[in-house]
Amino acid sequence: MSQINGFLFCVIIVIGDIMIDTHCHLSKKDYDNLEEVIKKMEKHIIIISGIDDESNKEVIELCNKYDNIYGTLGIHPSEVDNITEEIFQFIEENLNNKKIVAVGEIGLDYYWVKDNKEKQKEIFIKQIEIAKKHNKPIVVHSRDAINDIYDILKDYNIKTVLHCFTSSIEMANKFIKLGVKLGIGGVVTFSNAKTLKEVVKEIDLKHLLLETDSPYLSPDRGKKNEPYNVIKVADQIARIKGINPSLVIEKTTSNAVAQFDLNVKI
User: What number of other Cβ atoms are within 10 A of residue 219's Cβ?
Assistant: First the structure.
């Protein structure tokens, strides 16, 4: 990997059974074996998401270091009360990096904080506008806010990944009509995830992406999640749909390459 005039040029990877973890967080504070975790995915692709100023800088560092790591930069809704203009400036200045493939993780979260909904919407929309300005997709977080997320996104024509989708089949179909891809993670392996399993069964693979949201939501309950567990997500989707896991991997990889405009030859 070489760097010329601030732009990163990476090797072109040819898809075989390449898996893509389209959403995870790889912070040094979460892993004491980070290099080992990344090495397990050396034949695959990882997209790591920033959530605040510190993690955005870590995303840049890891993208510059590893050919198979791409990243997204953004401000998570839980961080909106800590935002400065310098954080937005950093994001914009680094969106020309060829390894930064989207603005995210952005969105709305009414589970933890309910008294700043308007501020969350304002920051969400501001980041959507930044993404549109730079012709980047967005990666969206939604918790207890699915209707507001939809009401905002329906006014924008922008490539979108709705990360960690767990809503209803009705909402899935509404988002799909907007061209949104649904990120499916370790929750689909949980025994109580009946609604999500219904969504996975009914929705065509062309609308789905694989993710882990590492270090959270591990398919192995009680253990720290990691990107290689994306294979367990693919296997569970295959079981639900009654198809070969290789088909799940092939199709979701193709979906991710197209949605994130990855420099990967199909």
Answer: 20
Instruction: Report which of 46, 142, 181 is spatially closest to residue 101, judged by C-alpha positions.
Output: 46
What tens-digit pLDDT sequence spans the chain (266 residues)? 333 333 333 333 334 589 999 999 999 999 999 999 999 999 999 999 999 999 999 999 999 999 999 999 999 999 999 899 999 999 999 999 999 999 999 999 999 888 999 999 999 999 999 999 999 999 999 999 999 999 999 999 999 999 999 999 999 999 999 999 999 999 999 999 999 999 999 999 999 999 999 999 999 989 999 999 999 999 999 999 999 999 999 999 999 999 999 987 76
Please name each of the domains of the chain with its CATH number. Answer: 2-265 (3.20.20.140)
Dig out the tokens for 254 from the structure.
């193709």
pTM (whole model) above 0.70: yes
Task: Give the list of residues 6+ apart from residue 142 with CB closer than 8 angstroms, or none.
Answer: 107, 108, 109, 149, 162, 167
Tally of helices (H runs) and strands (E runs) in the chain: 9, 12
Report the distance separating Cα 203 and Cα 188, nearest Å: 14
